[in-house]
## 1
Amino acid sequence: MAEVRLAGLSKSYGEQIAVAGLDLTVAAGEFFSLLGPSGCGKTSTLRLIAGLETPSAGRLLFDGQDVTDLPPHRRRIGMVFQSYALFPHLTVAGNVAYGLRARGVGKAEIGTRVAQALARVALGGLDARRVHELSGGQQQRVALARALVLEPALLLLDEPLSNLDAQLRVETRGELRRLQREIGTTAIYVTHDQEEALAVSDRLAVLREGRLQQVGTPREVYLEPANAFVATFLGRANLAEADVLEADGTGWAARLAGGEVVRGAGATTLRAGQRGLVCVRPESVSLGEAGLAATVRGVTFLGQRFEIELEVAGARWLATAANLGQTPPALGAAVRVAVEPRAARLLPCREDTP
């Protein structure tokens, strides 16, 4: 296992900044995800960690040792690429053994370690198959076995499930997390899939335009987003501009455009007199006889639940309600929506978001 520290790590391509001064520490044995939209710098960051790119500035340390200038083969890493990058002319066993042969490992040891790696990813008995004879899921497992057979201190995964269908992705991500825990290696996982990151990560970092937006456990980042970008990228969020009436370390109150007041529990970076964004997740909005005035603008049936589109203080909000046989509200109906103070957040306005 390796602790990984990024100290002011940056990467530029001419005038284009891909990674902007990242300061980040990944604990030994942790499953850490880099999450963000396309072009946010997450794959560039992974390639810098792997040694496949040279940083424009900053340092990279493994267990306190500066490895910034070390070539990839001296970093004790295993990497799984989005495309799998398997050799079509080699068998399954040949692909898995490739890195061991390159390192001069003896033939007998190679045979033992390849068999163990294939058994670990449930591919025992397929060692003589060619790549084109495998399904997409099996090819992904070969790529993973090829990385694991090297017994890396650090496992790097660049969107390894993106080529799989939805159901197989869910199944495979669970197996991947189980394997990482079983082996105990540190893992850094790149994905743009929010649900995937929430499901597998011990902690995650949200990136935007090469800059770090927030780091925390999946629960922390989802329930306590640092800004509007994090709130809307990681799941869905209802946002409404509001004037801050009061704020301290225990709670806050803010007035919406229509004059109604929302109260929240917990701290905020804003002060009384500033303008901010009230943020509430759809599952924390409930329809009832008390609360904010709202108008129903749409109802969508989604099997086990209804998704209700609302207009609240001139903003579009969503609420989810379990389908327990109730009749959903009619279009155009005037309703009241309640917001639990512990579920509400007060964020900086969008123009103040880093």
## 2
Amino acid sequence: MNSTLKYLIREPKTKTKNPSLLLILHGYGSNEEDLFSFAEELPDNLLIVSLRAPLSLDFGGYAWYGLQIDASNNTVSNIPEALVAKETIIKFIDKLQKKFSFNPQKSFLMGFSQGSILSYAIALSFPKKITNIIALSGYINTDITTFSEKPSEDYKDLDFFCSHGTEDPIIPVKMARKAITTLEENTIKYMYKEYYTGHAVTPQNFSDFKNWISAILDK
């Protein structure tokens, strides 16, 4: 598949005509190898693709969009870059669909932190692309999200697994809880879990979303 983006791929161990995709978006300062470490522990029938963000950072690692600290010591996202990243990922999903003909109803978009923020934005803006979302340690950024005017119709197939650390110093847990309120307001199906941890994915967190994935695949 031609793409300027770097990625890792694990094709299904059992070949199927319309596989279930798991597309992984890493967090700020990380890379495509981070969450891909989960791959061998996930169901064999998944097509797993882990995408590297396009922006290189001075201290190593990659980002989907830039972050700055403002005069009040708040972290500010570069919205134009975030919108470009969102569009880039959507085009990549379309390329995957063309090559593999994956089943959107049994496919997954998983993101951590910055990748989670983009996963929320993509799902709520384009709910038919991939219907199952794993949002780890993220929140809904309304500046990059286009909400449906017909949520009961457009969002009826969406299903979210959302999780957050109660001690997260990077993205406070209250932001994740606010995202859940937004899902509820739009009558979107979800499972929400909190863990006594910081900005991280615990073994229990992994076990929980792995079981959630398996339950959807087994339907």
## 3
Amino acid sequence: MDLLRGVAVAGMFFFSLVATFSDSLPLLLLHNIPGRFLPGDLVLSLFLFSSGVSLSLMRQRYASSFDSGMWLKLIRRLSWMVLVSLFITPFSVGEPFGMDEMMLNLVLTIPALFIIGLGEFVNLGAIFFIWVLIAVLGKFGQLVDPTISYLGGYPLCFAWLPMVLAGSLTTSRNYLTSIQRSAIWIVTLLILCIFSGPPDKLNLAPSFGALSALIGELCLDIFKRSKLRLVWLEYFGSKPLRMWVLMFALLGPLRLYAETSLHQSQLTFKPTEAVAMALLWMLVSYVISKGIDRARRASASATAR
């Protein structure tokens, strides 16, 4: 789970930074382009998928959805996310608590946790109900104007819930195997492509959700079977909130400089320079985070003595 979430967090880190460093990127390094499906579009949905895995594992540790221990742990996590969002959302979307990736994950957590507690078939039913609803609503006109609301805004945040619920299904051992789930996502993807169009993140196409569920399922299964270990990626996955903060520690000032000095949201470095600087800041952030861990251990050791 940490490896899958680490891939998503590192992807968010990389694609967000390169998009700020350069205004002349090749198409494959871009994301959030209306009417396009690009590799960078998957990082959010994979993060939501891995969040579903995490929530399901947490739910299984407690006897019921109303266990006080679970809710205390959840409240602490959500409180930190609210605090971080207060400072970051003005840079990410231009207003405090505006809809961005972190706020989306935050508002989906509680409804996802309740649905997860109702069992595997209820989860599947909720997933398909939401996808069908979005497909039907899309027949009556464009659901989202990306120039006005990112990710559909709060009114349409439920459209992303199936990606969290799909992740939660991977921890169930009662009914469906990973192969059966993958087959379900493939068939669903083909049907949704016919009735609601090809995968499109910004237009909330249900086929994008089904494709994300399939890719998340396959990645998690491959990681489990191969027992692949990428320590730095797993570390990114174990510290998503901290990495989000470290990303915006650089991204926020850069965007502010670009908007005030260049009158645009991007700097003007070459694509190769943008990639190199993004990778460098990821390395720097890893070192900084490790330093924070070491300082905390030293402080705890000194307190114990």
